[in-house]
């Protein structure tokens, strides 16, 4: 554990590695930030866990050593950063070890087409792969989320720097991430952290990249 900090309101936070048993709290963070950085509880009503099955739990299962948690004074996770050192390898392992069981649990058509969960089910069946040109210099990728109570305290910056250090030590030359165009606060944060926009044709999302030397 490290980086114990106390804000002007007396709240205390620390950065620590993910531990088994954190999952429920981390899923609450994922859902609580799942609507372009806002609370998605009222969006994913049919299955609130489904978002985490795609954007959180695979990383805890496959690359838990890169998962760092922000915990409050009661040691309850209120934020996290997740990473994959080699995105292409991660996608291949997930195709073998993660997606098949989910596809059995969530067949295509298992959610009403007008429900937001339907798009998540389609993603489970067609997760896609990252464009090779992105991976040439930016083979790693990450996800970072903080509940409002932990925002504005410099914790996001510390989470990313900790992950950057881990990735660089493991030989990564760069990292990329995706962010909704609607999440203006996150876009500003990533730019401040040295990320630059990568040309992409995706209408609803942006891709940002950062070299480890940035």
UniProtKB/TrEMBL annotation:
An example Gene Ontology molecular-function term: acyltransferase activity, transferring groups other than amino-acyl groups
Domain N-acetyltransferase: 13-213
InterPro entries: Acyl_CoA_acyltransferase, Glycosyl_Hydrolase_84, GNAT_dom
Pfam families in UniProt: Acetyltransf_1 (PF00583)
The protein's name in its UniProt record: GNAT family N-acetyltransferase
Native species: Actinomarinicola tropica
Superkingdom of the organism of origin: Bacteria
Keywords: Transferase
